[in-house]
Amino acid sequence: MNKEWKIYTRTGDDGTTALIGGKRVAKYDKRIEAYGTVDELNSWIGLIRDQEIDERSYKTLIEIQDRLFSIESLLAQGPGAETRKLPLISEKDILLLENEIDAMNEHLPPLTNFILPGGNTTVSYCHLARTVCRRAERIMIKVNRKFPIDLLSLKYVNRLSDYLFVLSRKISHDCGSIETRWIARI
């Protein structure tokens, strides 16, 4: 039986937090910012999942949320974490996203212009999640320069932003919302 977690520990009152492995770092450390941004993304995806969406998308979003927790764990590794078994991202996880993108795209009109985010609330949530996903990816790339991270995690987050974009289009299509094309004024 698992020991119940205590919600507050008071150990972070000095502005630090512990990485997996025990090393304490400032709460503004890029690794903390990276997994905090992935956590923010996970919350946005939860909000999308709470909307009226099809069952397949619902189940895929739960799988995505699970994988995002794995990525957060990998980003939270510090010295000494090597002895702990952590969940990994695999090519199979990335392939799931690619297969879902392809399946959704089969039923969508071809994309000929950029489209403006919006159309209905759920579509907008998808676009918000997509932009947070892109921010998480940028932060992860920056972290990787100093603290090497799992490259499949980077690949997964890159593909996830594509998935969220296509999901926004699918939901827009399913709801009969109009996609507003962006036409540059040149």
Summarize the entry for a quick read:
With 186 residues, the protein is mainly alpha-helical. It is built from five helices and four strands; from the N terminus they run ββαααβααβ.
Describe this structure in words.
With 186 residues, the protein is mainly alpha-helical. 58% of the residues lie in helices and 5% in strands. The chain has helices at 30-49, 55-75, 91-105, 121-146, 151-175; strands spanning 16-18, 24-26, 114-115, 181-182. The strands form 2 sheets. A two-stranded antiparallel sheet has the order 1-2. Strands 3-4 form a two-stranded antiparallel ribbon. A hairpin with a 5-residue loop joins strand 1 and strand 2. Helix 1 (30-49) packs antiparallel against helix 2, helix 3 runs parallel beside helix 5 (151-175) and helix 4 (121-146) runs antiparallel to helix 5. The mean pLDDT is 92.
List the helices and strands and how they pair.
Layout: E1 16-18, E2 24-26, H1 30-49, H2 55-75, H3 91-105, E3 114-115, H4 121-146, H5 151-175, E4 181-182
Antiparallel strand pairs: 1-2, 3-4
Main traits of this protein?
mainly alpha, two-stranded antiparallel sheet, 58% helix, elongated
Any idea what the shape is?
elongated
Low-confidence regions: none
Distance between the termini: 65 Å
Helix content: 55-70%
- What is the count of β-strands? 4
Discrete helix count: 5
Strands of the widest sheet, in order across it, are 1-2
Order of helices and strands: EEHHHEHHE
Radius of gyration: 18 Å
> What composes the largest sheet?
2 strands, antiparallel
Mean pLDDT: 92
- As a percent range, the share of strand residues is 5-15%
Structure class: mainly alpha
